[in-house]
Amino acid sequence: MIDFFFAPTPNGLKVKLFLEEAELAHRIVPVSLSRGEQYKPDFVRISPNSRIPAIVDYAPAGGGGPLPIFESGAILLYLAEKAGRFMPTSARARLEVMQWLFWQVGGLGPMAGQIGHFNVFAPEKVPYAIERYTREVHRLYGVLDRRLAGRDYIVDDFSIADMAAYPWIVPHAPHGQMLEDFPDLKRWFETMRDRPGTRAAYDGVVDVYADTKRTLTDAERRVLFGRVAEASA
Question: What's the 3-state SS for 50-67?
């Protein structure tokens, strides 16, 4: 059994996609980010960065006691190895999947997260930031669009690279992007959207951008965006 600490952000949905596709037994443990549950000591022991997703595997690959894992990319790699699925066996193809996984973790996710913040959640409009991150996400969409030309999936067969990227494309509208500008990306997006595992992963999930007109309270804003480093014990 796997405990899956989850909130419906793109990073959380990456791991939810894997668990649904692989049909791995798991228990969802909701984490309310606006209430600061990610900073509770019990959760920080599992996820030192106070971010979701995180898992605890009670039957880890290789045996031993319960295994906590944080960081979405590391979780996807671990689960792919554990399940023996969604990761190629040949060295060259494995490297391709890892490159595209790290491209999402280091590029698409952070840049899309920034435009999401400045376009949706920031208390005031900052035109330079909005233009900067809208343009960079547009560039990254172009990278993925070119990669998908002539391919059904990012590395030919469906893999954790696709699971990592898809949830960051779902909020394309609040991120200032139009899928019509990227025909191969749009085709892949629709293929991903229609997979049974994707439908199961998103069933009942509330889009974090859905209620963009709601004003965050000062307390919520401090919890979500106002934390600073804490002194070591």
Answer: CCCCEEEECCCCCCCCCE
CATH superfamily of 2-85: Glutaredoxin (3.40.30.10)
Model confidence at 210, pLDDT cuts 50, 70, 90, reads low
- Going 10 to 14 to 17 to 19, the CA torsion angle's sign is negative
Cis? peptide before 127, omega within 30° of 0:
no
Fill in the amino acid letter for 223: V
pLDDT reading at 121 higher than 80: yes
Does the structure show a pLDDT above 50 at 233? no
Alpha-carbon span 162 to 154, nearest angstrom: 6
The CATH classification number of 91-202 equals 1.20.1050.10
What's the whole-model pTM score? 0.91
- pLDDT above 60 for 204: yes
**Cα(144)–Cα(155) distance, integer angstroms:** 11
pLDDT at 215: 65
Q: What is the per-residue DSSP string for 82-134?
A: HHT-SS-SSHHHHHHHHHHHHHIIIIIHHHHHHHHIIIII-SS--HHHHHHHH
